[in-house]
Amino acid sequence: MIEINDLHKSYKMGSNVLHVLKGINFSVKEGELVAIMGSSGSGKSTLLNILGMLDTMDTGTYMLDRVPIKNLNETKAAQYRNKFLGFIFQSFNLINYKTALENVALPLYYQRMPRKERQDKAMKYLERVGLRDWAYHHPNELSGGQKQRVAIARAMAAEPKVLLADEPTGALDSKTSYEVMDLIQKINQEGNTILVVTHEPDIANMCKRIVHLKDGVIEKDELVNQVMAAEYV
Ligand code: ADP
Ligand code: MG
Prior knowledge:
Oligomer: single chain
Organism: Zhouia amylolytica AD3
Bound molecules: adenosine-5'-diphosphate, magnesium ion
Pfam family, one: ABC_tran
Helix content: 25-40%
Strand content: 25-35%
Protein name: ABC transporter-related protein
Number of strands: 10
GO molecular function: ATP binding; ATP hydrolysis activity; transmembrane transporter activity
Keywords: ATP-binding, Nucleotide-binding, Translocase, Transport
Number of domains: 1
Radius of gyration: 18 Å
Order of helices and strands: EEEHEEHEHHHEHEHEEH
Shape: globular
């Protein structure tokens, strides 16, 4: 599904160059649930944003669903992004003056799906995250965990190939974090490919595989021992 080779990324600030990603190689198969782990500032978000085509790489190659992703222009990148990728953020990024249902339906509006169809589909995905009864509520009436569930439904509604989550539990207490990760596990079991960026070992252990990012390279890439992970949590 995802294949990157020798990916490099630097940020230039005045005369300083910060070399964040220094030759990343990794691939993700369809149906995987992968954690990208590393300390704060290790480049996790930079990597996820490049995978999500929200940012461009300096050098390297990136194949997404067998399509080579070059540094595309904005319009082209947006088309690929909408077709292939769904995003989940730490801060939920919901629109406060829209209901949960309207938030989930919004990406479908941009796909020019007719109104009735997009409302039905949005309701279907709200149901899948257990929020049918909250469809007509606004984000400020929802708990943090519920807001993240709406965001997950919104990411899924466009039926992307890959879901990318950047610290999806970063703004939640630990009990709610586990609930959100349970949902992410369930969605993965239904066949979705999911990448989760986190700096929390407990959260990473709820994925099937952990990619450790350190000093700009992948330091370790390991499968999670599911039995041990269950005991740990
Ligand atoms: P993480 O998500 O692992 O905390 P980031 O990918 O956000 O790390 O950042 C990696 C490094 O790159 C940090 O040192 C950060 O300050 C720097 N950085 C991130 N984005 C930018 C940017 N747009 N301009 C300059 N430096 C940046
Ligand atoms: Mg980050």
